Amino acid sequence: xxxPIMVSIGMPVYNAEKYIAFAIQSVLNQTFTNFELIIFDDxxxxxxxxxxxxFNDKRIKFYHHEYNAGIAICLNQVIKFSSGTYFARMDADxxxxxxxxxxxxxxxxxxxxxxxxGSNAVIINEKNCIIGLRKIKEYSTFYHAMKSSVFIxxxxxxxxxxxxxxxxxxxxxxxxxxxxxFRTFFNSKFKNLxxxxxxxxxxxxxxxxxxTQRLKIVVLSIKKNSALINNRIFVFILIxxxxxxxxxxxxxxxxxFKGLFIKFRNSKLSIESMRKYQVxxxxxxx
Length: 286
Known about the structure:
Blueprint: E1 7-13, H1 20-28, E2 35-42, H2 48-53, E3 60-65, H3 71-81, E4 86-89, E5 95-96, H4 100-110, E6 116-119, E7 121-124, E8 130-134, H5 142-147, E9 157-159, H6 160-165, H7 176-183, E10 190-193, E11 198-201, H8 208-224, H9 226-229, H10 232-254, H11 258-264, H12 271-284
Parallel strand pairs: 1-2, 1-4, 2-3, 6-10, 7-11
Antiparallel strand pairs: 4-9, 5-11, 6-9, 7-8
Helix pairs in contact: 8-10, 10-11
C-alpha cells in the first residue's frame, strides 16, 4: 500500500510559459518526495499547458479552466482536490529551495499548534539573478496584519484542514492572501521561519496596475472585515494610508523609479550569500 500523501502543493497558473518549467522542476527536485503537485491552469492562452504536459511525473495532477476565473477560485479548487496532511502554496514563476518541503514539514510536525507558517524569501529577477532578501516578521501583530501581508504568499505551508475550513474569498482575487490571514488572525497561530525557503520573482517589467489593483482590493477587504477593527476612525486612517501607498507607487513608476522601489523593499545580501544562492538556483533549474 502506498504511503498517504504528506504535502499537497497548490500551483495556480495563468499564461506562465516563461517561467513555469523552472517552477515545476524546482518542486520535482525536492529532497522531501512524499508530495502531490496540483497545477490548476486558469484559462492560459499561451504555451503554458503544453509545457506542463511535457513533464512526466505521477505526482503531478493537472486541471484547467477553459476561461480565466481568477486566482481565488483556482486556489479553492486546488484545496478541494488536495489530499495531503499539509497544504503548501507555490507560484508559477517562483523557484523552491531544494529543502523547502523538508524544512517546513519538520517544523509543523514538531510544532503542530501552528496553523500556517511562511518564511523569508530570496528575490530574483527575470533572468534568475539574485536581487536581495525579502524579510517578513516572525510573528505578526494584528496591526501588521492590517497594513501589510502576514506572509509572503508562495512561501506558506499549513494544515490542509485549516485551509478547507478557511477558503479564499473569491470576490477578492488579487489580494486573497491579505484577506485570508487578516480575517483569520485572531483564531489562528501563524509564524514565519527566518531562513528563506523560496526564490521569489520580482521584475521591473511587472505591470504597475497589478500592485495598485491589489491595494484597491486590500481596501475592499478592510471594509468587508471592518468589524474586526471596531474603530471607524482607525479604519479611515488605514484606508488613507493604503491609498497613499498606491499613489506613491504610481508616481515612482511614472518617474521611472520603480526599480529603486523594488530595491528599497529588499535587504542586501553579502557577496558570499549572493554566490551561494546563485549556485543553488542554478542547480534547481536543471
